[in-house]
Design goal:
globular; 7-stranded mixed sheet; single chain
């Protein structure tokens, strides 16, 4: 495939896709920046999420994606010359099998693509399947994997949840935010849990230099970023939880998202919140904003003398309270993974994984991938196996640090 390749589907649009007398066109490119203009226009007016913005995925492709050997494959669909869908994919060749999947899915919480609202509401599953088959043919892919797609999104079942889709290993946790934070707090927390959390917050507030901020200055951003990395690494060693931000590529990815090492005018894809007390940063949270939703991406907490006062829980409470007061923010997304604090604030939204094989090699890999995810889900949801896996990780971390 060339750097930019447009396929005219106007003749097929009338019969196969059903939009008459529409002119449907699919543009394919390996160059994120070449697709960015339509992409940003659609993101500003349509449905999407920050994990699939051109800035986020350019940072990922230049760091982690390059290390993994993933080639960007951006699909832009136009209807009557108007962009109606951007599907940011990545192409990877492994053992002779060419697989398309969401670009950057390894380091995001959900995948939705970016849609024109009217197109999103009207497109059918059959039309999407036909479009995806065409994309696979044009890119000479054997298999398309669509991971972590919300089953229900913006008022309907997501069009990228294909027939035969299976459950993803973990849901995301979301909630509509009211203007009245106190009402939300009462609705989501019992009287005793509210009292306990407010008591811990008062203890933290009594410490010298207490503050909860969204970092804006270079100094605060750098301090918060270094605290995040340090706290994540120590937590990984203690609890046997893999630290996905431990290697150089992942750190460079975060630095780009936080605009730490680029020009002063570089846009920041992530906000960094932190809670500071007694001269130390005790908890951090990386968040992204898009489409009226605050996406809580990743967090950390210091395991030190103030840990009994739950600085991580106080920090997310403060972030949510300020989001409720922001008229531009209507929804909270706490991301992947079932943690107690997430279930107290939000409700689970199931995610789905779809697989579309277009060759014999693709069908073989499709079967293997389904088995792998089935085993992963079984382990993750087992009250016996999952604690054992975490214990083995702790032993491995301890042995590696000896």
């Amino acid at each position: 495939m060339s750097a930019a390749n447009a396929t005219n589907l106007s003749s097929e649009a009338e019969g196969e896709f059903g939009w008459t007398p529409s002119h449907l066109e699919i543009a394919l490119t390996h160059d994120i920046h070449a697709a960015a203009a339509d992409w940003r226009t659609l993101a500003a007016t349509g449905f999407g999420n920050p994990y699939q913005s051109p800035g986020w995925l350019a940072a990922w492709s230049e760091t982690i994606g390059k290390d993994l050997g993933v080639d960007p494959a951006i699909v832009t669909v136009r209807l009557e010359e108007k962009p109606v869908l951007v599907l940011p994919l990545g192409l990877r060749n492994s053992a002779g099998t060419r697989t398309l999947s969401f670009l950057g899915h390894q380091n995001g919480n959900q995948n939705t693509a970016v849609w024109d609202p009217e197109f999103y509401e009207s497109v059918t599953g059959e039309q999407v399947s036909a479009l995806l088959t065409k994309v696979c043919d044009d890119m000479q892919a054997d298999l398309l994997l669509l991971q972590n797609v919300p089953q229900s999104w913006n008022g309907r079942e997501h069009p990228l949840v294909l027939e035969g889709a299976t459950s993803s290993p973990s849901p995301i946790f979301t909630r509509r935010l009211p203007d009245d934070f106190d009402a939300l707090f009462r609705e989501t927390h019992s009287k005793s849990s509210r009292k306990n959390l407010l008591r811990k917050q008062r203890h933290l507030q009594s410490a010298d230099g207490y503050r909860v901020i969204r970092a804006e200055t270079e100094t605060d951003l750098r301090r918060g970023y270094e605290a995040f990395l340090d706290q994540r690494e120590k937590r990984a060693q203690e609890a046997g939880i893999p630290n996905v931000f431990s290697d150089h590529c992942a750190k460079h990815f975060l630095e780009q998202l936080l605009a730490l090492n680029g020009p002063e005018t570089a846009p920041r894809e992530l906000d960094l919140w932190f809670l500071e007390a007694d001269g130390k940063i005790r908890a951090t949270y990386l968040c992204a904003n898009g489409g009226g939703t605050i996406h809580a991406y990743s967090n950390s907490v210091a395991h030190d003398d103030l840990l009994p006062n739950s600085p991580g829980l106080v920090l997310i409470k403060e972030i949510i309270e300020r989001a409720c007061a922001d008229p531009q923010t209507a929804e909270l997304d706490l991301g992947l993974g079932e943690e107690r604090y997430k279930t107290s604030w939000a409700e689970p939204v199931p995610l789905k994984d779809s697989r579309l094989a277009v060759s014999l090699k693709g069908n073989i890999k499709k079967s293997l991938e389904a088995l792998r995810l089935q085993a992963k889900s079984a382990v993750r949801n087992s009250d016996v196996l999952w604690p054992l896996v975490r214990q083995m990780r702790r032993w491995t971390s301890a042995a590696g640090g000896a």
